[in-house]
From TrEMBL:
This is DUF6808 domain-containing protein. InterPro entries: DUF6808. It comes from the Bacteria. Residues 179-231 form the DUF6808 domain. It comes from Sphingobacterium kyonggiense.
Length: 233
């Protein structure tokens, strides 16, 4: 056995070991995705949309923000199956399209509770006394003490970002979404974020480079040709 054949045999064994390791990693990743997908599919089967599972909550005490991390749903089906029918129909009506034409749909419930002290302020022009809430990053509440009228207002600031995510260089890309609220009292729940993606084509043009088996033994080779995916993951 020549030195070249020994090296090629070693590389082939190394490639088989790497493929086996990638296969096991893919199985673990698929189990994680399947668990979340099963939750959505079971909810749809029972005619009830499933809110997303929040993976992590990050509170920044210095910046005074709270960030919610969750995995958005990526599906090749229609998005209306993953949210309440009323919401899907309302948005489709507003867009003047059919629900099957919506390729991105998101909704969430935002809530906040707070309390604070007020200061009595007299308006010398209107002869009215007000109870004004001390400065707050979200709430602005005024009470007319003469008429017992309340004038509340609130400003909630949010930021949302999407980013690709994968556990390692061999894993497939997934997506994570983050919603940042600029006040730690803000709570976000009932999150729905569905993205419709086109089905990957089965046909493709590819290049293969590596060791090949010939009647004379192992050797290096390269080929260009069409490929067809029998199974898509």
């Amino acid at each position: 056995m020549t030195k070249t054949n020994i090296i090629l045999t070693f590389l082939l064994i190394l490639a088989l070991v790497a493929m086996r390791w990638l296969h096991l990693a893919w199985i673990d990743e698929k189990k994680e995705r399947t668990t979340l997908q099963d939750q959505y599919d079971e909810a749809i089967k029972n005619n009830d949309a499933a809110p997303l599972v929040i993976l992590d909550t990050i509170r920044d005490t210095v910046a005074g923000t709270v960030t919610y991390i969750y995995p958005p749903v990526v599906t090749k089906k229609n998005t209306d199956g993953y949210v309440s029918k009323g919401l899907a129909d309302t948005l489709a009506k507003a867009l003047k399209v059919a629900t099957k034409e919506i390729d991105h749909l998101t909704s969430k419930i935002i809530s906040i509770e707070g309390k604070g002290k007020g200061e009595r302020i007299k308006d010398t022009i209107t002869k009215t006394e007000w109870l004004v809430m001390k400065p707050d990053p979200v709430f602005d509440v005024k009470v007319n003490l003469l008429t017992d009228s309340i004038y509340p207002s609130a400003k909630i600031r949010l930021a949302q970002a999407y980013a690709p995510y994968r556990k390692n260089v061999f894993s497939r890309y997934q997506y994570r979404s983050a919603i940042m609220a600029y006040d730690p009292r803000i709570q976000i729940s009932e999150v729905y974020d569905v993205n419709k993606v086109p089905r990957s084509p089965r046909w493709g043009l590819g290049v293969t480079v590596g060791p090949v088996i010939t009647p004379k033994g192992f050797t290096w080779g390269a080929s260009v040709g069409f490929s067809y995916d029998l199974i898509q993951f």
